[in-house]
Design the sequence.
């Protein structure tokens, strides 16, 4: 039950929303005594009430489980804050403009972090190489592309967007990106993580 909702979480989220126990109870069709019982640790919501409870508190079910509200405080968007999330089950890649609660295949995904302190031999195998060809960067990585170990994607991050290329096993670890406004290139290895090259 460590990952289940706590009464303290419900109380904090309810108070943050400015609701009384009675108002919250009315929204999800339970008694105010039920809300009081949950908040005092004498019971937990039934699984059938999780979605209505999250809706009444104006958050997602994932936020309800984590106990953290995710509110957009990114008033002036900055492409340097771009984050990627990958699902270890299906391989799905999700891009977000900043920190988010991302879930895929029933798993809450952590954002990918650039591998700065990796073994030198691993760094060499994941070295991102650039070649200028007219108005483009031709990006290559000398990396195995087997079904078990491969570069999953290469992305160029610009000051106004992202150009994302999904790669597949037994293909080539290469991509082409426009040079204009490019700030850095990212490459993701399914075994060793995210690597970055500033431009």
Sequence:
């Amino acid at each position: 039950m460590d990952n289940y909702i706590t009464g303290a979480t419900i109380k904090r989220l309810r108070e943050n929303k400015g609701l009384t126990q009675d108002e919250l109870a009315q929204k999800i069709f339970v008694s105010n005594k039920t809300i009081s019982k949950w908040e005092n640790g004498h019971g937990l919501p039934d699984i059938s009430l999780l979605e209505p409870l999250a809706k009444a508190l104006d958050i997602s079910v994932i936020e309800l489980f984590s106990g953290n509200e995710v509110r957009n405080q990114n008033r002036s968007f900055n492409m340097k804050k771009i984050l990627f999330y990958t699902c270890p089950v299906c391989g799905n890649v999700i891009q977000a403009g900043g920190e988010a609660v991302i879930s895929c295949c029933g798993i809450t995904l952590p954002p990918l972090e650039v591998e700065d302190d990796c073994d030198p031999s691993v760094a060499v195998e994941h070295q991102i190489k650039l070649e200028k060809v007219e108005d483009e960067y031709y990006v290559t990585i000398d990396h195995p592309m087997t079904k078990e170990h491969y570069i999953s994607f290469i992305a160029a991050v610009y000051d106004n967007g992202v150009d994302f290329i999904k790669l597949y096993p037994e293909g080539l670890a290469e991509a082409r990106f426009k040079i204009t406004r490019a700030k850095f290139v990212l490459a993701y290895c399914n075994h060793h993580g995210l690597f970055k090259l500033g431009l």
User: Anything to note?
Assistant: The two ends are 47 Å apart (CA to CA). The mean pLDDT is 87. The helical segments are 7-17, 21-28, 32-39, 50-56, 61-66, 120-125. The longest strand covers residues 151-158.
